[in-house]
Amino acid sequence: MDLEDAGSLAQVRFLIRDRDGKYPALIDEILGGAGIATILTGVRMPRMNAIMKRWVKSLRGELLDRTLIWNEAHLRHALREYERHYNQHRTHRSLAAAAPMRALHQALGPDRIERVEVLRRDRLGGVLHEYRHAA
After folding, report:
1. Is 30 part of a structural domain of the chain?
2. Would residue 20 count as lying in a domain?
3. What's the rounded Cα separation, in Å, for the pair 135 and 124?
4. Rounded CA gap, 69 and 76, in Å?
5. Is 85 domain-assigned?
6. Does residue 119 have a pLDDT over 60?
7. For residues 76 and 6, is the Cβ–Cβ distance under 8 A?
8. What was the pLDDT predicted at 2?
């Protein structure tokens, strides 16, 4: 589900999870009662869910562990802002320090290094910071 559409009602039909012992059978029963089918990842396939786990780890470490969420509307707003930050600004090692939805910046020439100005933009009340060169 795209977080841009989070204002509309969405029906969750599936929960994909690993086989970790942290999830008791009661959770599957509760989810089943709500019409959500639990799908387990493959046996001895630790990388099967790795991309999503990495995203959740980043989300927790950079936002949720530092923010007091007041209600569902505030949570949706914070997730939307983090999604924009993650895709449009935050650097990614696998993309050579570019963001997924932004091209890699050109290196500064020696003539511009002496007069570089950096602007900072705070998001979510200063929890996230974005930096860019001034024009």
Report:
1. yes
2. yes
3. 24
4. 10
5. no
6. yes
7. yes
8. 45
Whole-angstrom distance, CA of residue 79 vs CA of residue 43: 31
For residue 91, CA distances in Å to 46, 66, 135 come to 25, 20, 20
Greatest mean pLDDT among 7-11, 96-100, 129-133 lies in 129-133
More confident residue, 6 or 57: 57
pLDDT tens sequence across 55-82: 889 899 988 998 899 999 999 999 998 8
As given in the structure block, the two tokens for residue 73 are 């509307």
* Range 80-107 average pLDDT: 69
SS (H, E, C) 81-114: HHHHHHHHCCCEHHHCCEECCECCCCCCCHHHHC
Number of domains in the chain: 1
Can you read off the two tokens belonging to residue 87?
């895709």
39 domain-assigned: yes
Please say whether the beta carbons of 102 and 96 come within 8 A.
no
In the chain, DSSP finds a helix count (H) and a strand count (E) of: 4, 4
